[in-house]
Amino acid sequence: MANKKFKGRLPEDPAVLEKEVDGVGRYTAGAISSMAYGVRTPIVDGNIHRLLTRLLALHAPQTAPATIKFLWTAAADLVGQLPIDDDREGIAGDWNQALMELGSQVCKPVSPDCAACPLQPACNAYSEVSGLHRSESNSRAECTLCAPIPLTTASDLIPSVQVFPMKKEKKASREEEESVLVLEWRGSGHDEGQEGTRKWLYVKRPEKGLLAGLYEPPTTPVNIINSATASASVKSQQYLEASLSALKVYIDLSSQDIATIIEQARYIGSIPHIFSHINMKYHIIHSVLSAPTAASDSSTGNGNGHQLPEILDTAPRMAVWLDAHEVEHANVGTGVKKVWSEVYGSWGSFEPTTGGISANANYVGIRKRKTGASGGGGSGKEAVGAKTKTKTLEKNSLSADGDGLVSDHSGSRKVVRKIMMPVMPVRSNKRIKVDQ
Protein backbone atom coordinates (compact mmCIF):
# COMPACT_ATOMS: atom_id res chain seq x y z
CA MET A 1 0.00 0.00 0.00
CA ALA A 2 2.87 2.37 0.77
CA ASN A 3 4.25 1.91 -2.77
CA LYS A 4 0.89 2.29 -4.50
CA LYS A 5 -0.67 5.15 -2.56
CA PHE A 6 2.30 6.98 -1.10
CA LYS A 7 4.84 6.24 -3.85
CA GLY A 8 7.14 4.25 -1.61
CA ARG A 9 7.30 6.79 1.23
CA LEU A 10 5.36 6.34 4.45
CA PRO A 11 3.46 9.46 5.50
CA GLU A 12 4.83 11.62 8.31
CA ASP A 13 1.47 12.25 9.96
CA PRO A 14 0.87 9.56 12.62
CA ALA A 15 -2.92 9.85 12.20
CA VAL A 16 -2.62 9.12 8.47
CA LEU A 17 -0.22 6.26 9.14
CA GLU A 18 -2.63 4.64 11.59
CA LYS A 19 -5.64 5.10 9.35
CA GLU A 20 -4.25 4.36 5.90
CA VAL A 21 -1.55 1.73 6.39
CA ASP A 22 -2.65 -1.80 7.27
CA GLY A 23 -1.09 -3.26 10.40
CA VAL A 24 0.01 0.11 11.80
CA GLY A 25 -1.50 0.99 15.17
CA ARG A 26 -1.16 4.01 17.39
CA TYR A 27 2.16 2.96 18.92
CA THR A 28 3.80 2.00 15.59
CA ALA A 29 2.55 5.20 13.94
CA GLY A 30 4.04 7.29 16.74
CA ALA A 31 7.34 5.43 16.59
CA ILE A 32 7.70 5.89 12.81
CA SER A 33 6.68 9.56 12.86
CA SER A 34 8.91 10.54 15.79
CA MET A 35 11.99 8.47 14.97
CA ALA A 36 11.97 8.73 11.16
CA TYR A 37 10.58 12.23 10.71
CA GLY A 38 11.12 13.93 14.08
CA VAL A 39 7.41 14.60 14.59
CA ARG A 40 6.66 15.49 18.22
CA THR A 41 4.16 12.71 18.78
CA PRO A 42 3.97 10.31 21.74
CA ILE A 43 4.33 6.56 22.02
CA VAL A 44 3.20 4.45 24.96
CA ASP A 45 4.43 0.86 25.18
CA GLY A 46 4.54 -1.31 28.30
CA ASN A 47 7.74 0.29 29.59
CA ILE A 48 6.51 3.86 29.12
CA HIS A 49 3.15 2.90 30.63
CA ARG A 50 4.89 1.75 33.81
CA LEU A 51 7.26 4.73 33.86
CA LEU A 52 4.45 7.28 33.56
CA THR A 53 2.26 5.66 36.22
CA ARG A 54 5.17 5.97 38.65
CA LEU A 55 6.16 9.43 37.54
CA LEU A 56 2.57 10.59 38.10
CA ALA A 57 1.78 8.18 40.98
CA LEU A 58 -1.25 6.99 39.05
CA HIS A 59 -2.88 4.04 40.82
CA ALA A 60 -5.69 3.10 38.44
CA PRO A 61 -6.81 0.00 36.51
CA GLN A 62 -4.16 -0.52 33.84
CA THR A 63 -6.39 -1.42 30.92
CA ALA A 64 -9.29 0.91 31.69
CA PRO A 65 -10.02 3.25 28.73
CA ALA A 66 -9.78 6.29 31.03
CA THR A 67 -6.32 5.21 32.21
CA ILE A 68 -5.06 4.59 28.68
CA LYS A 69 -6.40 7.96 27.51
CA PHE A 70 -4.82 9.75 30.47
CA LEU A 71 -1.37 8.21 29.86
CA TRP A 72 -1.40 8.98 26.13
CA THR A 73 -2.38 12.56 26.93
CA ALA A 74 0.42 12.83 29.49
CA ALA A 75 2.94 11.41 27.00
CA ALA A 76 1.75 13.91 24.38
CA ASP A 77 2.15 16.79 26.85
CA LEU A 78 5.73 15.73 27.62
CA VAL A 79 6.89 15.29 24.03
CA GLY A 80 5.08 18.47 23.05
CA GLN A 81 7.32 20.50 25.37
CA LEU A 82 10.46 19.52 23.48
CA PRO A 83 12.19 22.41 21.75
CA ILE A 84 11.82 22.84 18.02
CA ASP A 85 15.37 22.62 16.73
CA ASP A 86 16.02 22.37 13.00
CA ASP A 87 19.52 21.12 13.75
CA ARG A 88 18.12 18.21 15.80
CA GLU A 89 15.35 16.74 13.72
CA GLY A 90 15.41 13.47 15.67
CA ILE A 91 14.90 14.95 19.12
CA ALA A 92 11.33 13.59 19.46
CA GLY A 93 12.48 10.13 18.43
CA ASP A 94 15.39 10.32 20.87
CA TRP A 95 12.97 11.32 23.63
CA ASN A 96 10.61 8.43 22.99
CA GLN A 97 13.49 5.97 22.70
CA ALA A 98 14.96 7.29 25.95
CA LEU A 99 11.67 6.78 27.79
CA MET A 100 11.47 3.19 26.56
CA GLU A 101 15.06 2.47 27.60
CA LEU A 102 14.55 4.15 30.97
CA GLY A 103 11.50 1.98 31.60
CA SER A 104 13.21 -1.25 30.56
CA GLN A 105 16.61 -0.70 32.18
CA VAL A 106 15.97 1.48 35.26
CA CYS A 107 12.26 1.74 36.10
CA LYS A 108 11.87 -2.04 35.91
CA PRO A 109 8.80 -3.99 37.01
CA VAL A 110 10.77 -5.58 39.86
CA SER A 111 13.68 -4.00 41.75
CA PRO A 112 13.65 -0.59 40.04
CA ASP A 113 16.91 1.38 40.41
CA CYS A 114 15.48 4.63 41.76
CA ALA A 115 18.91 5.89 42.85
CA ALA A 116 20.11 5.89 39.24
CA CYS A 117 16.93 7.34 37.74
CA PRO A 118 17.32 10.86 36.28
CA LEU A 119 13.60 11.48 36.86
CA GLN A 120 13.78 10.77 40.59
CA PRO A 121 13.40 14.43 41.69
CA ALA A 122 10.17 14.72 39.69
CA CYS A 123 8.82 11.22 40.46
CA ASN A 124 5.63 11.36 42.52
CA ALA A 125 5.79 7.65 43.37
CA TYR A 126 9.30 8.06 44.81
CA SER A 127 8.14 11.09 46.79
CA GLU A 128 5.25 9.15 48.30
CA VAL A 129 7.49 6.23 49.19
CA SER A 130 9.93 8.64 50.83
CA GLY A 131 7.21 10.25 52.93
CA LEU A 132 7.41 13.52 51.03
CA HIS A 133 3.94 13.33 49.54
CA ARG A 134 1.19 15.82 50.20
CA SER A 135 -1.75 15.13 52.46
CA GLU A 136 -4.55 12.85 51.28
CA SER A 137 -6.96 15.75 50.92
CA ASN A 138 -4.62 17.60 48.57
CA SER A 139 -3.35 14.70 46.46
CA ARG A 140 -5.56 11.62 46.23
CA ALA A 141 -8.72 13.69 46.28
CA GLU A 142 -7.58 15.44 43.10
CA CYS A 143 -7.31 12.18 41.10
CA THR A 144 -10.58 10.93 39.71
CA LEU A 145 -8.93 7.84 38.22
CA CYS A 146 -7.00 6.51 41.20
CA ALA A 147 -8.10 3.54 43.28
CA PRO A 148 -7.17 3.15 46.97
CA ILE A 149 -3.71 1.74 47.55
CA PRO A 150 -3.68 -1.32 49.84
CA LEU A 151 -1.21 -0.58 52.64
CA THR A 152 0.63 -3.43 54.33
CA THR A 153 1.49 -1.52 57.54
CA ALA A 154 -0.24 0.85 59.91
CA SER A 155 1.88 3.65 58.46
CA ASP A 156 0.53 5.77 55.64
CA LEU A 157 3.78 5.34 53.73
CA ILE A 158 3.62 3.44 50.45
CA PRO A 159 6.02 0.47 50.75
CA SER A 160 7.55 0.69 47.26
CA VAL A 161 7.23 2.36 43.88
CA GLN A 162 6.31 -1.12 42.68
CA VAL A 163 2.80 -0.35 43.94
CA PHE A 164 2.55 1.49 40.62
CA PRO A 165 1.11 0.59 38.20
CA MET A 166 -1.95 -0.88 39.86
CA LYS A 167 -1.83 -4.67 39.87
CA LYS A 168 -4.16 -6.39 37.45
CA GLU A 169 -6.99 -8.26 39.09
CA LYS A 170 -6.67 -11.97 38.47
CA LYS A 171 -9.81 -13.59 37.21
CA ALA A 172 -10.91 -16.27 39.61
CA SER A 173 -10.41 -19.77 38.22
CA ARG A 174 -13.60 -21.75 37.87
CA GLU A 175 -14.01 -25.09 39.61
CA GLU A 176 -14.74 -28.12 37.43
CA GLU A 177 -14.82 -31.87 37.98
CA GLU A 178 -14.70 -34.74 35.51
CA SER A 179 -15.03 -38.49 35.74
CA VAL A 180 -12.33 -40.43 33.88
CA LEU A 181 -12.81 -44.10 32.99
CA VAL A 182 -9.61 -45.95 32.14
CA LEU A 183 -11.11 -48.91 30.27
CA GLU A 184 -8.76 -51.78 29.45
CA TRP A 185 -9.52 -54.74 27.18
CA ARG A 186 -7.41 -57.87 27.58
CA GLY A 187 -7.11 -60.29 24.71
CA SER A 188 -6.97 -64.05 24.96
CA GLY A 189 -3.96 -65.53 26.67
CA HIS A 190 -3.98 -63.66 29.96
CA ASP A 191 -5.92 -66.38 31.70
CA GLU A 192 -3.26 -68.90 30.63
CA GLY A 193 -0.45 -66.71 31.96
CA GLN A 194 0.58 -65.47 28.50
CA GLU A 195 1.07 -61.87 27.44
CA GLY A 196 -1.93 -61.54 25.16
CA THR A 197 -3.20 -58.39 23.46
CA ARG A 198 -4.16 -55.41 25.57
CA LYS A 199 -5.92 -52.27 24.41
CA TRP A 200 -7.17 -49.08 26.02
CA LEU A 201 -9.99 -46.87 24.83
CA TYR A 202 -8.99 -43.30 24.00
CA VAL A 203 -11.03 -40.39 22.68
CA LYS A 204 -9.70 -37.40 20.73
CA ARG A 205 -10.67 -33.96 22.00
CA PRO A 206 -12.09 -31.31 19.62
CA GLU A 207 -9.61 -29.40 17.46
CA LYS A 208 -10.51 -26.13 19.17
CA GLY A 209 -10.72 -25.23 22.84
CA LEU A 210 -9.08 -26.68 25.93
CA LEU A 211 -6.45 -29.38 25.16
CA ALA A 212 -7.37 -29.18 21.48
CA GLY A 213 -6.70 -32.36 19.50
CA LEU A 214 -5.21 -34.31 22.41
CA TYR A 215 -6.20 -37.89 23.30
CA GLU A 216 -7.64 -38.97 26.65
CA PRO A 217 -9.55 -41.87 28.21
CA PRO A 218 -13.33 -41.34 28.10
CA THR A 219 -13.90 -38.24 30.23
CA THR A 220 -17.16 -36.58 31.14
CA PRO A 221 -18.08 -33.55 33.29
CA VAL A 222 -19.80 -34.29 36.59
CA ASN A 223 -21.57 -32.11 39.08
CA ILE A 224 -19.49 -31.03 42.05
CA ILE A 225 -20.61 -33.19 44.95
CA ASN A 226 -20.51 -31.79 48.47
CA SER A 227 -17.99 -34.07 50.15
CA ALA A 228 -19.36 -33.17 53.57
CA THR A 229 -22.81 -34.55 52.84
CA ALA A 230 -22.13 -37.39 50.37
CA SER A 231 -20.43 -40.65 51.25
CA ALA A 232 -17.59 -42.08 49.19
CA SER A 233 -19.84 -44.86 47.89
CA VAL A 234 -22.46 -42.37 46.72
CA LYS A 235 -19.87 -40.24 44.96
CA SER A 236 -18.13 -43.18 43.29
CA GLN A 237 -21.48 -44.51 42.10
CA GLN A 238 -22.33 -41.19 40.47
CA TYR A 239 -18.91 -40.99 38.82
CA LEU A 240 -19.30 -44.49 37.37
CA GLU A 241 -22.82 -43.77 36.13
CA ALA A 242 -21.58 -40.63 34.38
CA SER A 243 -18.69 -42.52 32.79
CA LEU A 244 -20.95 -45.33 31.56
CA SER A 245 -23.35 -42.83 29.98
CA ALA A 246 -20.45 -41.23 28.12
CA LEU A 247 -18.97 -44.61 27.18
CA LYS A 248 -22.14 -45.78 25.45
CA VAL A 249 -21.90 -43.06 22.80
CA TYR A 250 -18.45 -44.22 21.69
CA ILE A 251 -18.49 -48.03 21.69
CA ASP A 252 -21.06 -50.77 21.15
CA LEU A 253 -21.65 -52.34 24.56
CA SER A 254 -23.78 -55.38 25.29
CA SER A 255 -25.60 -55.73 28.58
CA GLN A 256 -22.96 -58.29 29.58
CA ASP A 257 -20.20 -55.79 28.79
CA ILE A 258 -21.83 -53.16 30.98
CA ALA A 259 -22.34 -55.62 33.82
CA THR A 260 -18.68 -56.64 33.69
CA ILE A 261 -17.44 -53.04 33.59
CA ILE A 262 -19.49 -52.32 36.70
CA GLU A 263 -18.33 -55.50 38.44
CA GLN A 264 -14.65 -54.86 37.67
CA ALA A 265 -14.75 -51.12 38.37
CA ARG A 266 -12.21 -49.73 40.81
CA TYR A 267 -12.73 -46.23 42.14
CA ILE A 268 -9.10 -45.15 42.28
CA GLY A 269 -9.68 -41.73 43.81
CA SER A 270 -9.57 -38.04 42.92
CA ILE A 271 -6.66 -35.85 41.87
CA PRO A 272 -6.44 -32.10 41.17
CA HIS A 273 -5.08 -30.66 37.95
CA ILE A 274 -4.64 -26.90 37.54
CA PHE A 275 -5.10 -25.08 34.25
CA SER A 276 -4.50 -21.35 33.88
CA HIS A 277 -8.21 -20.59 34.28
CA ILE A 278 -9.68 -23.86 35.59
CA ASN A 279 -9.19 -25.76 38.82
CA MET A 280 -9.96 -29.27 37.61
CA LYS A 281 -10.50 -32.37 39.68
CA TYR A 282 -10.38 -35.79 38.01
CA HIS A 283 -12.29 -38.70 39.56
CA ILE A 284 -10.60 -41.87 38.31
CA ILE A 285 -12.22 -45.25 37.67
CA HIS A 286 -10.42 -48.28 36.24
CA SER A 287 -12.17 -51.29 34.75
CA VAL A 288 -11.25 -54.32 32.65
CA LEU A 289 -12.95 -56.36 29.94
CA SER A 290 -11.33 -59.69 29.06
CA ALA A 291 -11.56 -61.67 25.83
CA PRO A 292 -13.41 -65.00 25.75
CA THR A 293 -11.47 -67.92 27.16
CA ALA A 294 -11.03 -71.20 25.33
CA ALA A 295 -14.00 -72.59 27.23
CA SER A 296 -16.33 -69.78 26.14
CA ASP A 297 -17.99 -69.07 22.83
CA SER A 298 -15.43 -66.85 21.13
CA SER A 299 -17.67 -66.17 18.15
CA THR A 300 -20.36 -64.44 20.18
CA GLY A 301 -18.51 -63.42 23.27
CA ASN A 302 -20.95 -65.31 25.47
CA GLY A 303 -19.67 -67.10 28.50
CA ASN A 304 -17.02 -65.54 30.68
CA GLY A 305 -15.39 -63.25 28.10
CA HIS A 306 -15.96 -60.28 25.83
CA GLN A 307 -15.10 -59.41 22.26
CA LEU A 308 -13.38 -56.06 21.73
CA PRO A 309 -16.30 -53.58 21.58
CA GLU A 310 -16.60 -51.85 18.22
CA ILE A 311 -16.34 -48.09 17.83
CA LEU A 312 -19.73 -46.63 16.91
CA ASP A 313 -20.05 -44.78 13.60
CA THR A 314 -22.24 -42.27 15.41
CA ALA A 315 -19.59 -41.41 18.00
CA PRO A 316 -19.50 -37.61 18.49
CA ARG A 317 -15.70 -37.61 18.53
CA MET A 318 -12.96 -39.85 17.20
CA ALA A 319 -12.48 -42.90 19.45
CA VAL A 320 -9.77 -45.54 19.10
CA TRP A 321 -8.49 -48.67 20.81
CA LEU A 322 -4.74 -48.23 21.41
CA ASP A 323 -2.23 -50.92 22.31
CA ALA A 324 0.54 -50.30 24.84
CA HIS A 325 2.99 -48.90 22.29
CA GLU A 326 0.36 -46.57 20.84
CA VAL A 327 -0.69 -45.36 24.28
CA GLU A 328 2.89 -44.55 25.23
CA HIS A 329 3.38 -42.49 22.05
CA ALA A 330 -0.08 -40.91 21.92
CA ASN A 331 -0.46 -37.15 21.96
CA VAL A 332 -1.78 -36.63 25.48
CA GLY A 333 -1.70 -33.87 28.06
CA THR A 334 -0.08 -33.89 31.49
CA GLY A 335 -3.47 -34.45 33.12
CA VAL A 336 -3.86 -37.79 31.32
CA LYS A 337 -0.37 -38.81 32.42
CA LYS A 338 -1.26 -37.99 36.02
CA VAL A 339 -4.43 -40.07 35.77
CA TRP A 340 -2.51 -42.95 34.21
CA SER A 341 0.10 -42.79 36.97
CA GLU A 342 -2.58 -43.24 39.61
CA VAL A 343 -3.78 -46.44 37.92
CA TYR A 344 -0.51 -47.96 36.71
CA GLY A 345 2.19 -46.34 38.86
CA SER A 346 3.74 -44.09 36.22
CA TRP A 347 3.31 -43.02 32.62
CA GLY A 348 4.71 -45.77 30.42
CA SER A 349 3.85 -48.50 32.91
CA PHE A 350 1.02 -50.89 32.05
CA GLU A 351 0.57 -53.04 35.14
CA PRO A 352 -1.64 -51.82 37.99
CA THR A 353 0.63 -51.00 40.88
CA THR A 354 0.26 -51.75 44.55
CA GLY A 355 1.78 -48.35 45.28
CA GLY A 356 -0.02 -45.04 45.41
CA ILE A 357 -3.76 -44.91 45.83
CA SER A 358 -4.49 -48.33 44.30
CA ALA A 359 -2.60 -50.37 46.91
CA ASN A 360 -5.59 -51.40 49.02
CA ALA A 361 -6.93 -54.82 48.05
CA ASN A 362 -10.34 -53.80 49.35
CA TYR A 363 -10.95 -51.43 46.43
CA VAL A 364 -14.04 -52.06 44.35
CA GLY A 365 -13.58 -54.98 42.00
CA ILE A 366 -10.31 -56.31 43.50
CA ARG A 367 -10.55 -59.83 44.85
CA LYS A 368 -7.99 -62.17 46.32
CA ARG A 369 -6.71 -64.96 44.09
CA LYS A 370 -8.48 -68.20 44.85
CA THR A 371 -6.34 -71.17 45.76
CA GLY A 372 -5.63 -73.22 42.64
CA ALA A 373 -7.04 -70.58 40.25
CA SER A 374 -5.66 -70.58 36.75
CA GLY A 375 -2.99 -68.07 35.86
CA GLY A 376 -0.18 -69.41 37.99
CA GLY A 377 0.36 -69.98 41.67
CA GLY A 378 3.48 -69.27 43.62
CA SER A 379 4.15 -67.32 46.74
CA GLY A 380 2.62 -64.12 45.42
CA LYS A 381 5.90 -62.14 45.16
CA GLU A 382 8.46 -62.05 42.41
CA ALA A 383 12.05 -62.95 43.26
CA VAL A 384 14.58 -60.17 42.73
CA GLY A 385 18.19 -60.90 41.71
CA ALA A 386 21.04 -59.46 43.77
CA LYS A 387 22.38 -57.46 40.83
CA THR A 388 19.06 -55.79 39.96
CA LYS A 389 17.88 -53.56 42.74
CA THR A 390 14.23 -53.39 41.79
CA LYS A 391 10.86 -53.09 43.38
CA THR A 392 8.43 -55.92 42.89
CA LEU A 393 4.68 -56.02 42.93
CA GLU A 394 2.42 -58.15 45.06
CA LYS A 395 0.72 -60.66 42.76
CA ASN A 396 -2.93 -59.93 43.48
CA SER A 397 -5.75 -60.25 40.97
CA LEU A 398 -8.39 -58.13 39.33
CA SER A 399 -10.76 -61.03 38.70
CA ALA A 400 -11.52 -64.52 39.92
CA ASP A 401 -10.16 -66.12 36.75
CA GLY A 402 -6.61 -65.19 37.70
CA ASP A 403 -5.46 -62.01 35.93
CA GLY A 404 -2.39 -60.99 37.90
CA LEU A 405 -0.98 -57.54 38.49
CA VAL A 406 2.43 -58.59 37.14
CA SER A 407 2.26 -59.76 33.55
CA ASP A 408 4.07 -62.74 32.08
CA HIS A 409 6.32 -61.84 29.13
CA SER A 410 7.59 -64.97 27.35
CA GLY A 411 7.81 -66.95 30.55
CA SER A 412 9.49 -64.31 32.71
CA ARG A 413 7.66 -61.96 34.97
CA LYS A 414 7.89 -58.25 34.22
CA VAL A 415 9.60 -56.45 37.09
CA VAL A 416 8.82 -52.77 37.55
CA ARG A 417 12.14 -51.03 38.16
CA LYS A 418 10.75 -47.76 39.41
CA ILE A 419 7.38 -46.86 40.84
CA MET A 420 6.57 -43.15 41.05
CA MET A 421 4.57 -42.48 44.19
CA PRO A 422 2.03 -39.76 43.40
CA VAL A 423 0.47 -37.34 45.86
CA MET A 424 -2.13 -39.25 47.80
CA PRO A 425 -5.61 -38.01 46.88
CA VAL A 426 -8.80 -38.85 48.70
CA ARG A 427 -9.66 -42.50 48.23
CA SER A 428 -12.50 -44.79 49.01
CA ASN A 429 -12.68 -48.46 49.87
CA LYS A 430 -16.37 -48.67 49.10
CA ARG A 431 -17.87 -50.98 46.51
CA ILE A 432 -19.61 -49.24 43.64
CA LYS A 433 -23.21 -50.28 43.23
CA VAL A 434 -24.99 -49.17 40.09
CA ASP A 435 -28.54 -49.97 39.09
CA GLN A 436 -28.37 -51.37 35.56
Can you put this structure into words, describing what you see?
With 436 residues, the protein is an alpha+beta fold. It has 2 domains: 40-163, Endonuclease Iii, domain 2, CATH 1.10.1670.10; 174-413, Nucleoside Triphosphate Pyrophosphohydrolase. The chain is 26% helix and 13% strand. The longest helix is centred in the first third of the chain and has 16 residues, at 65-80. 31% of the residues are buried.
Rg is 33 Å
Secondary-structure content class: alpha+beta
End-to-end Cα distance, whole Å, is: 69 Å
CATH superfamily of the largest domain: Nucleoside Triphosphate Pyrophosphohydrolase
Query: How many separate structural domains?
Result: 2
Shape: elongated
CATH fold annotation of the largest domain: Nucleoside Triphosphate Pyrophosphohydrolase
Overall CATH architecture of the largest domain: Alpha-Beta Complex
Mean pLDDT: 77
Oligomer: single chain
- Helix-strand topology string: HHHHHHHEEEEHHEEEHHEE
Q: Helix tally?
A: 11
In terms of per-residue confidence, which ranges show pLDDT below 50 for 5 or more consecutive residues?
Answer: 133-140, 296-303, 355-431
Largest sheet: 7 strands, mixed
Into which percent range does the helicity of residues fall? 25-40%
- Work out the number of β strands: 9
Tell me the name of the CATH class of the largest domain: Alpha Beta
State which percent range the strand residues make up.
5-15%
Keywords: 4Fe-4S, DNA damage, DNA repair, Glycosidase, Hydrolase, Iron, Iron-sulfur, Metal-binding
Pfam families: NUDIX_4
Region (Disordered): 369-411
Domain Adenine DNA glycosylase C-terminal: 198-341
